[in-house]
Amino acid sequence: MSRPAATGSGPVGVGLIGAGNISDQYLTQLTSYPDLAVRFVADLLPERARAQADRYGVPAAGTVDELLARDDVEIAVNLTLPATHAVVTSAALAAGKHVWSEKPLATDLAAGRALVEQADAAGLRLGCAPDTVLGPGLQTARRMIERGDIGRPLTAAATMQYAGPHRWHPAPDFLYQAGGGPLLDIGPYYLTALTQLLGPVTRVAARGAGAGPTRVIGTGPRAGETFEVTVPTYVTAIYDFAGGAVGQLTLSFDSPLTRTGVLEVAGTAATLATSDPNGFTGEIRTARPGDTDWTEVVPVTGVPGGRGLGVLDLARALRTGGPHRATGRIGLHVLEAMFATAESAATARFVPVDSRFEPVPALPADFDPTARTL
Length: 374
Ligand SMILES: NC(=O)c1ccc[n+]([C@@H]2O[C@H](COP(=O)([O-])OP(=O)(O)OC[C@H]3O[C@@H](n4cnc5c(N)ncnc54)[C@H](O)[C@@H]3O)[C@@H](O)[C@H]2O)c1
Description:
This protein has about 375 residues and is an alpha/beta fold. Helices cover about 30% and strands about 25% of the residues. The strands form 3 sheets. A 9-stranded mixed β-sheet has the order 16-15-14-13-7-12-11-8-17. Strands 3-2-1-4-5-6 form a 6-stranded parallel β-sheet, sandwiched between helices. Strands 9-10 form a two-stranded antiparallel sheet. The protein starts with 11 loop residues before the first strand and ends in a 22-residue tail after the last strand. Nicotinamide-adenine-dinucleotide binds next to α4.
């Protein structure tokens, strides 16, 4: 696939679609980056879009069609629910916008593939969350592994387990239904991190389980309401990676004990523990043969950012013509790996993962989202 040529000059115009829970984090970050100009917030509920626009000093708000009709919006940021990601992303591409999508890219593989093809055919860029992998934590870990600090990577172990988001999300239904569950909701953070450290997944063996067919909302106006659970709330999987490494990942909404953010890579010379894949920065630790505990805490290099780093990286790439890092193809590969995981859990067989993605360079250690470069 050829990369779109550099276009435009100055800060890149951005419009947000979906003014719900996660839009606060995006708007906080995106409005603080001088290389971006947030120009419009859209939502199915116009009053919600207006309230978020007012709160973050965005000049205009309204409907999705109004956003897509604007010439000064170059990147549409899709923060709608997983079930509508594909249709909203496709509409934005059809309107000539570059798109950043929240994860997952789509809720079925055919739709995900179609989006990547649509963007390629139109010469538009498609980016996909998570961009936690672009934070200083995982980028420092990546640079260490690429430099050979742990020798040759052999195995990985990753864990995210807690009692589940129905306890804190005011509208958590979607997190327990098709397109959600710990695999599709949290899996993208861990699988994206694993694939950026170890390369693409080639096959998976998995097992799923669940605590029951319903949950009760724990907070907000619907607190006490029972809703249906239709996907496994516990998934454990073993992955083969193209580079020869093997990894194990456990994701659970069924664990009274909270243990999250664990991602360890064991190499021939040392084991490295990354920062939380669902965060942007944190401690990196290493241990060497004979050590009974972590012996070294490595200083993380880089300016901490938040949700929106991937939009910024895509925006800068638009102007320079360089590669953007959190690509739709990585999102598609992670989607395929997740569906393969679900299929393996359902069939008790190894399932191959065929898609691949272009390797993207690590961010330079002096990457600064708060700098004006455009
Ligand atoms: N909440 C989190 O902590 C979190 C963290 C990371 C990623 N995400 C992802 O962000 C996305 C949004 O999650 P959320 O928690 O903000 O959900 P939410 O339900 O709080 O907000 C979604 C918003 O999108 C709007 N919307 C839905 N369909 C639309 C459409 N077709 N056109 C325009 N607007 C539409 C809704 O009206 C709502 O305001 C999901 O993909 C989720 O996986 C959420």
